[in-house]
Specification:
Length: 173
């Protein structure tokens, strides 16, 4: 069994994509995922599966589309990959609540910064399949847009740390 973290896109944000975490847990269990746990009401779920990452992603997205009646994206990482995302954070010296990783399906393009607009004090760095952003002034009023990461989903470093810890040690209740 492999430990996975799935990060759902646009869930329970701004009144769109409502998905109670109890429903998400039940949906994952119905797919055969084991030791399923959700974390905060923004579409984070940790579980075990004997399927590979691509099969997990496809099954989860298909079930989410059936549930919601529209496509819902999910970024999937193994527990080891989630720990590596945390370890690779180029802004580890910055407050974790003001630093995010935007998870994507593919590697950021080499010309990542050419597709950026509205940048003020924000710092941006490419990861393996993530884009890291430090918002020194917070995210509330940012005008930053990163074209290459538009289809991704962001989580702050505090959330990433919690999910990595959960995925490292599955809940055996």
């Amino acid at each position: 069994m492999t430990n996975y973290v799935a990060l759902l896109r646009a869930i329970n944000v701004g009144g769109t994509g409502k998905l109670p975490m109890t429903d998400l847990k039940a949906l994952c269990e119905a797919l055969g995922f084991k030791t399923v746990r959700t974390y905060i009401a923004s579409g984070n779920v940790v579980f075990e599966s004997d399927q590979d990452e691509n099969a997990v992603k496809q099954a989860l997205e298909r079930a989410l589309a059936d549930y919601a009646g529209k496509p819902m994206g999910a970024m999937v990482r193994t527990g080891a990959e989630m720990a590596a995302v945390l370890e690779a954070n180029p802004f580890a010296h910055c407050p974790p609540s003001k630093t995010v990783a935007i998870f994507m399906d593919t590697a950021p393009p080499a010309d990542l910064l050419s597709g950026v607009s509205g940048q003020a004090t924000e710092e941006i760095a490419a990861g393996r399949r993530e884009v890291y952003v430090h918002y020194p002034d917070g995210m509330a009023r940012t005008k930053l847009k990163i074209k290459a990461a538009a289809a991704g989903t962001a989580r702050n470093i505090n959330t990433i740390a919690k999910l990595a810890a959960w995925a490292a040690v599955p809940d055996r209740r």
